[in-house]
Fold this sequence. Notes:
CATH topology: Rossmann fold
Number of helices: 5
Strand order of the largest sheet: 3-2-1-4-5-7-6
Structural class: alpha/beta
CATH architecture: 3-Layer(aba) Sandwich
Largest sheet: 7 strands, mixed
CATH class: Alpha Beta
Number of domains: 1
Distance between the termini: 38 Å
Amino acid sequence: xxxxxxxxxxxxxxxxxxxxxxxxxxxxxxxxxxxxxxxxxxxxxxxxxxxxxxxxxxxxxxxxxxxxxxxxxxxxxxxxxxxxxxxxxxxxxxxxxxxxxxxxxxxxxxxxxxxxxxxxxxxxxxxxxxxxxxxxxxxxxxxxxxxxxxxxxxxxxxxxxxxxxxxxxxxxxxxxxx
Length: 178
């Protein structure tokens, strides 16, 4: 399998029915749809993206799958309180193929920390390398080791890795305390 498999990534994240989940930089919404399938009608998935055209695409994708538990939010996750969600309001955060695109990675992780409940967890999936231009430009790749340092500096504790496919890494962190 060449690219990350959204269903498999969500299965490895171990979400449960009734959870509330934020999907940061959700892109086309593939992970959000998989997460919504797991959390069911009793749960919620908040799709947050700065790009309005991607939110529109995500909305259509969710409608095709008849998922009413997805809420779409136009937000800038590099800004303080950029998700617009309340403090300690979600059980889990997904950050997939996003950190390589932002300049202030710490701000994104701080926002995840802020909205997570005390027992909350975050799944980060990102590119291992550029792969000859198939992924991000080489200078934009956010290495796994750097992610661990950033996450720990923002109050997260490393839990485990997931198999995110041949081109990506996936790490799960828990809210730990600063």
